[in-house]
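It is worth pausing here to work through a concrete case rather than discussing structure prediction in the abstract. The textbook approach is simple: state the sequence, then state the predicted structure, then interpret. We follow exactly that order.
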Amino acid sequence: MKKTCSKEVTLKLIGILRTPHHAVDNIPVQPVGSQDVGVAELFPEFSEGLKDVDGFSHVMLLFHLHEMKKEVQLIITPFMDNKEHGVFATRSPARPASIGLSTVKVKKVDGNKLYFEGADMLNGSPLIDIKPFFRNVDNRLDAVSGWLEGKDADIASIHRSDDRFIERKAIHNME
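Step two, the predicted structure:
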């Protein structure tokens, strides 16, 4: 019997991200461009899951990009280039599934809170999952970076977001 695949999925959130970034405009576009500290605050029922996380130097945070444009753009101009690319060849926040991924440095774990460095996400972002970064598995020394090849090695460290992926609210002029 052939099973069909649903085009939507429901995710269980595990917590909320607390960061110093309260507006989408002008935040770091990658964790390597941020020394800002954030907190992954897990809902109490998931706090046991943080056991042994403090033994890792880095974790990957998956979160919902809840303040991004709702319209799907498949061709976009990303923050780190001035040319258009397919959205799946970028880390643009304007994605069909609105999922962010950031590899951050673990500072400490305290109860249901994971403190991290490299906050490049908006305060209040819903946390979907935390995964440990495995140095011997996640590094790919032979990786090629597509359209980023040949660009300044610090490009992700120096770029900040702008308003290109922010949904603008219509302003009605009452006369």
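Step three, interpretation. The radius of gyration is 18 Å. The chain is about 5% helix and 25% strand.
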